[in-house]
Specification:
There is one protein chain. About 75% of the residues lie in helices and about 0% in strands. By secondary structure, it is mostly helical. It has nine helices and no strands.
Length: about 170
């Protein structure tokens, strides 16, 4: 059985099968994150597909094998951010898949939660997204991103408090 690090090393050397196995292991987490960020299944699939393509093309530049998942999430986060800029004048689309995933009871809750989530700083969004949509623990997020586990927990806590205050209608400064 190959470990993640072995798969990343092989992928960095051009092994497509190793990269495919890595991708298969994180696809659901990437898709959930993109779907929540973008609110549109087709756009989420496109963002994940573009992310995986870019990751494959540039994996040789990855400095640390341990950082693979965080690196891929950063690529995806950037793609989602760029795509969201295209949504400025586009009406928000919601569907049952997003509702089921998010667990909120009505459309307004989904919209407000997504808006507030989108207002977080990139690192906060990544930490919250990896925890909520990827199911990663703070220790795993720490290992993936290279951020100290205590720092991950404190940043997640601050981000959640920031979101809660904004959802209550209070503006919080960054």
């Amino acid at each position: 059985m190959n470990t993640k690090l072995q798969l990343v090393r092989r992928a960095k050397k051009g092994d497509a099968e190793a990269f495919a196995e890595l991708y298969q292991n994180i696809y659901q987490n990437l898709y959930r994150y993109a779907l929540y960020m973008l609110g549109n299944p087709a756009d989420a699939e496109d963002a994940v597909s573009d992310t995986v393509t870019d990751a494959w093309v540039t994996i040789g530049k990855l400095r640390s094998e341990e950082a693979f998942e965080g690196w891929v999430f950063r690529i995806l986060s950037n793609k989602c951010r760029r795509k969201r800029k295209e949504y400025v004048n586009k009406p928000l689309e919601w569907n049952e898949e997003i509702g089921d995933m998010a667990g909120a009871d009505d459309l307004a809750d989904h919209y407000h939660l997504r808006r507030v989530f989108g207002e977080l700083e990139d690192e906060e969004r990544m930490i919250i997204g990896m925890h909520v949509f990827g199911g990663y623990t703070s220790k795993e997020i720490s290992e993936i991103t290279g951020i100290n586990a205590n720092t991950v927990r404190s940043r997640e806590s601050r981000a959640l408090k920031k979101m809660a205050k904004k959802l209550e209608g209070q503006e919080v400064s960054k």
